[in-house]
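User: For my dataset I need records formatted as: sequence, then structure tokens, nothing else. Please produce one.
Assistant:
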Amino acid sequence: MAKQPKAPKPKPVSVIKELREAHPWIGPLAKPAQDAAVAKRRKKERAAGPKLSEERLRELADELETIQRRINPDLARQEEIKKELLAHWGHTGISEIESSLGNTLISQSFSLGADPDVVKNAVGSRQWVGMTARILQPERLLTLAANDEALRETLKKAVVVSKLTLAVTPPSSRRAKSGQPSDEDRQEAA
């Protein structure tokens, strides 16, 4: 007797920021999964080097901030130049600019999709069913779980962290928050 092929395991669906804001109860529910992901990542990062002394930690943070302050004006100018080059491309369509320092490319990258309504109208219903897959709809799941405690318990077990991103952000590359000194205030104090 031949083995039945296994259906592919569905990938976790993402719960976007707007859904998390609309259903604030999901945050505490996801906390155990988030804590586990952070613990796993911290273990991985510990293997990359030793714990730093307070003095070395401050030295590295100061060095990072010094570098960031040097490059911030260049990054702003870089964005201005890119806008000018893209405007020129809009007029001419050229995709390569030769200069004394090398060739600058204006490359194109596309994300493609298919309009499901057009496809559905063009194929038969049997073929349409074969092309589509049922996927978990996070909006519907959270809406139902908002009023169903048993479903929330199931969701608590199902929450996974699909990606944990870490960013090291020096002070001058962050937006000023109320009560936080601006770049100018920091420079005057230095």
